[in-house]
């Protein structure tokens, strides 16, 4: 990183678009203005601290930013609260070695660093005036998009121990007379559902305290709408997501005067962190984006940012895969797997993924979820030719190969547990309490990290043709205690576990950079930008029912791009809900994300096999539009019986859009309203072509050329058949013509 002195930067500010500083000349207060492509953050030094003056749309006249009242302190501490200088929520609190718990911070200076050609980071440094405790706040911005990344580091040079009680990634300060907050909550098989309500006066908290499967119960993401209930295309919204795969807390406090203060970051519950002299603690990054044209634009910003910086391989369209889980569960042998691979390949599937059940020996063979986790050697009773045999067969028939692992867990019925009972998280005087018959390994312990690294490295080094890993994590943290951490640092568990998980994954990725990684956690969990930085995609839910996935994927699309969302066609009736839907409907939902299959193709009849082949060909055609295009959410499946969304991709020469529209329950009078498209060029002409059309029921605009203006203002009539089954769908390509 190149360090640029701030005063040098001030002189140069007029040349730098993405980030500028304004000097007030004779006025001694320092002012800092951070610009992203379309937004501005402004700070001003005041008394001992720094104030946040503005976070909103980019303004042309920097001077105006400093005329009004500050939004609040940049990083209030507990001292500010007790002094009455601040409205209760704070970012930092610590107990000093002498027992004092009134942490105070004085501003000591600012620095600007180049991260790369696109990104810069502003550092604001503080120090406690009475103790050798140093705190730095970071704001990283990019010229090319509107995501601000912010985080905190605290370092102690005090003799003795400084106990950190709270350290936030950001303290959000804003104002609104009608704020609404959206959280993304759920449970297993119904993960991450958008849930919006007015932000009440007092405290509203989104949080998680179960360690590993954060996003299964509550996503570390929020939408704060400042102009009433959030809308897709209008109104001011702030969207935020914490890059952390563990306990988090977002505490929003709304005051009677319209002030909103939110402390966002690590969950302080039982998470005191004891710093010895010379030690530091860094928080995860909070990613924020502001939009004054609704949450649709904010989601598109986040998706583009994610493809550049937030997920792995954001430029590479994803392969279509078949995963063995719902097709075979634990019950398979080599013949079953070879058969699945062959049929998948002949339908046009590009990658085969062998799920759970391939490992464990003898009494610990993994034939159900009760035994074998931790014993990562292939079960030759099931697979006599081993992984090499499977890969050899895959290569012979022309399909790629991937495999499932769950490295962080162990069944008590396993050789690993017999050998290392001290490696599991456990509490003195408490029974082991497995979840799904498994215990969580202590990733704080370097020996456990090494064991995971070694077996993964061995698996991937001895089988260099494994090109995909599904990394599962099917238990939250039970028995939260570590035999590795000393008694006075047991509360480091929540932070050190996640850091251990990242450390081991980072080592594996560094050694095997080409392998694609999927994050999974008995369905939705580990869906956060900490895990996603290390993975290419995630498994949103074990619930593969297309009707339910419509809602879950819609909700997740607020933060995550389609290419990262694994979405599989499974059998009907669905294994989780028993719902019957047509193969077309199931495809038309799965095609809005990273398409895959999760069934044994031998159970498809000839008509379904032929249909699937055609659908895979179509998906390959529209894959760049879905996976690299911009998402426009048209009609919310939580609100409408005929939900719809579309992707728009600009190749530089022309725009191609694909519209996905659904009729959930066929009601006699629903679906007559034309669908208003978005994101097209008003002046351009587009050809309409339904994909997978049925000759008996063509769109009236089928094959016609219409203007973008017409499609966005008058809309595309969907011409739903008047009499039909429930769960019908249309996929329409809208392609710009010369
Ligand atoms: C979890 C995953 C499933 C499957 C099973 C295997 O439930 O979400 O997709 O991999 O584990 O045990």
Summed up:
This protein has 738 residues and is of the alpha+beta class.
Which key terms come to mind for this protein?
single chain; 738 residues; alpha+beta; eleven-stranded antiparallel β-sheet; globular; disordered N terminus; binds alpha-D-galactopyranose
Q: How many helices in DSSP terms?
A: 15
Structural class: alpha+beta
The parts where pLDDT drops under 50 for at least 5 residues are 1-27
The set of bound ligands, ions and cofactors reads:
alpha-D-galactopyranose
Oligomer: single chain
**Helix residue percentage:** 10-25%
Question: The biggest beta sheet, please?
Answer: 11 strands, antiparallel
Radius of gyration: 27 Å
- Mean pLDDT, to the nearest integer, reads 94
> Hey, roughly how much beta strand do the residues contain?
25-35%
Distance between the termini: 46 Å
Q: Name the overall outline.
A: globular
The count of strands amounts to 38
Please describe what this structure looks like.
It is a single chain. By secondary structure, the protein is α+β, with helices and mostly antiparallel strands. It contains 15 helices and 38 strands. The strands form six sheets. Strands 1, 8, 9, 10, 11, 13, 14, 16, 17, 21 and 22 form an eleven-stranded antiparallel sheet that branches. An eight-stranded parallel sheet has the order 30-29-28-25-24-23-32-31. Helix 6 runs parallel beside helix 7 (386-397), helix 9 packs parallel to helix 10 and helix 12 runs parallel beside helix 13 (583-590). The protein starts with a strand and ends with a strand. The model is unreliable at 1-27 (pLDDT under 50). Alpha-D-galactopyranose binds at residues 325, 355-356, 369, 404, 472, 474, 520, 522-523, 539, 542.
